Amino acid sequence: MHAQLQRWDVQAGPELVRLLMRQMCLEPCQPRPDRVALTGQEESAPITDLVRRDFTAPEPGVRLVGDITYVPTWEGWLYLATVIDCCTKEVVGYAIDDNYRTPLTKRAVEHAERAGRIQEGAIFHSDRGSNYTSAEFGGFLESKCIRRSVGRTGICFDNALAESFFGALKNERVNRVVYPSRERARRDIIRYIEFWYNRKRLHSALGYNTPEEIYAAHQEMRLAA
């Protein structure tokens, strides 16, 4: 809140902002502690963790993370698979469907690829769910010249960037509304990603800039080089 007010040239210190929020009965939204596992665990193939909790990158398109979450609707669950750039924290690819089978994760990566947001030889990091450790998904990444990386089983910190986005999505949007249909939820999630999270939401990890601003800055540097 304080960072956004500064961008609007509103002169107010952090303590004043906290005081005014208390007087207006405004409270920051907090994440829910529970998380349901969406996939089984497949331990047969040893896959290296190439990220080791370093969710930074020197430029866009070289280190990406992905995961799947679920959204309740009156018609049943809706599943969202994402691809997030570690440099810009932008959701560069996503796919939404009524199931969480491997094609969903492949479509999310293809979305990022079509947008030109994945460089050759990039790392794609995920948890150890069966969708991501399957031979099908591994062959798919190899065909795209993308290196696969996974964290340890049941350790959410090994994929913290993806978990952070899902926390923001649910705290700021999904947990505050009710979706009568999967289509209504799909449209709302896309609006949140495209028009809020990527373009307007300030990220402390980016020095309170937006993902779009960071990507544009890197593009300017690339063109100037």
Overview features:
225 residues; 2 domains; alpha/beta; five-stranded mixed β-sheet; 8 helices; Nucleotidyltransferase, domain 5; 16% strand
Please, could you describe this protein's structure?
With 225 residues, the protein is of the alpha/beta class. The chain folds into two domains: 30 residues, no CATH class; 162 residues, 2-Layer Sandwich (Nucleotidyltransferase, domain 5). Helices cover 38% and strands 16% of the residues. The chain has a five-stranded mixed sheet, with helices on both faces. Helix 3 packs parallel to helix 5. It is globular. About 3% of the residues have low confidence. One of its GO terms (molecular function) is nucleic acid binding. It comes from Nocardiopsis mwathae. This is Transposase InsO family protein.
Give the topology, please.
Layout: H1 2-7, H2 14-23, E1 63-73, E2 76-85, E3 91-97, H3 102-114, E4 123-126, H4 130-133, H5 135-143, E5 147-150, H6 160-172, H7 182-197, H8 211-224
Number of helices: 8
Give the % helix. Answer: 25-40%
SS-derived structural category: alpha/beta
Largest sheet: 5 strands, mixed
Strand content of the residues, in percent? 15-25%
Strand runs, count: 5
The largest sheet has its strands arranged as: 3-2-1-4-5
CATH homologous superfamily classification of the largest domain: Ribonuclease H-like superfamily/Ribonuclease H
